[in-house]
Amino acid sequence: MPPMVSGEMSSEPWRLLDYSYDSAFQNLALEEALARSMDSRNSRPTIRFWVNPPSVILGRFQKASAEVDISLCQQSGVQIARRFTGGGAVFHDEGTLNFTIVAQPEFGTTLTELNETSSAIILDAFRALGLKGSILPPNSIIIGEKKVCGAAGALGRGFALWHSSILVSTNINRLELALTPSRKGNVTPYVHSRWHAVTNLQNASGHSVSVNAVKAQLIKSAEEILHVNLHADLLGEEEASLFRRLYSQKYSLPDWNQMGRYTQNQEGPK
């Protein structure tokens, strides 16, 4: 069910939105809605936490068949969805914590700056959890030699958005099977994923690590690094309306999620 909607936005400058749908398509529609609502006078910088069911998330300019074992995903109930940001394909499940920052364009005037500022929050949270991470350019975080986090960003009229996928207790075997085509040197005119060996925080630490524990530490690190106070709040009316339109006219459609026709010819609804 959709998040509750607040009738009036709070005066606090930064909002914490901790909400997930049980559909990757809806979760990604909300990501774009949050970004495109930033130029509204009622909008505020937002940090969002969300979790997807088992799914492969394609970058905006990717071809599904070059990145995903489509047959395997269909047989095992893994959703195949496309985000509106670029980059490579990633696998999500309930052990993957997605962390989004959406703010005014001044938050990051370039994608590099946006990635550096946002990644600093994750690295600080990792340190507090006893894990030493480092940035693997252009937009990944590794522990040792293995990737534990990938990210993508977008700068648009009135917004800067950066979202990342943190492998907390993600099923690595299922990830590798679903993304088998992305590990091969496929020749494609579309963006092809840069494959890197992966692990999750639980394996890297050698003990149990929960999504909630990582989430709690990210809140502390974000408040300290960004010098803000995060206040849990609800979705605004304009955001909810745009979300519904984006979902029905774009993110629920096979043409967007697998064929990617919007990537070449049109943006879809705004």
CATH fold annotation: BirA Bifunctional Protein, domain 2
Give the C-level CATH assignment: Alpha Beta
Shape: globular
Strands of the widest sheet, in order across it, are 8-9-10-11-7-3-2-12
The sequence of SSEs as H and E is: EEHEEHHEEEHEEEEHHHEEHHH
SS strand fraction: 15-25%
Number of domains: 1
* SS elements, strand count: 13
| Mean pLDDT across all amino acids | 90
* Terminal Cα span: 23 Å
The secondary structure category is alpha/beta
Count of alpha and pi helical runs: 10
Helicity level: 25-40%
CATH superfamily membership, which one?
Bira Bifunctional Protein, Domain 2
Radius of gyration, taken over Cα atoms and rounded to an integer in Å? 17 Å
Q: Specify the CATH architecture.
A: 2-Layer Sandwich
Poorly predicted spans: 6-11, 262-270
Largest sheet: 8 strands, mixed
Report on the architecture of this protein.
- The chain is α/β, with parallel strands linked by helices and 270 residues long.
- The chain has one domain (12-250): 2-Layer Sandwich (BirA Bifunctional Protein, domain 2), CATH 3.30.930.
- It contains ten helices and 13 strands.
- Helix 1 (24-36) packs across helix 8 (237-251) and helix 4 (111-128) crosses helix 7.
- The protein is globular and about 45 Å long.
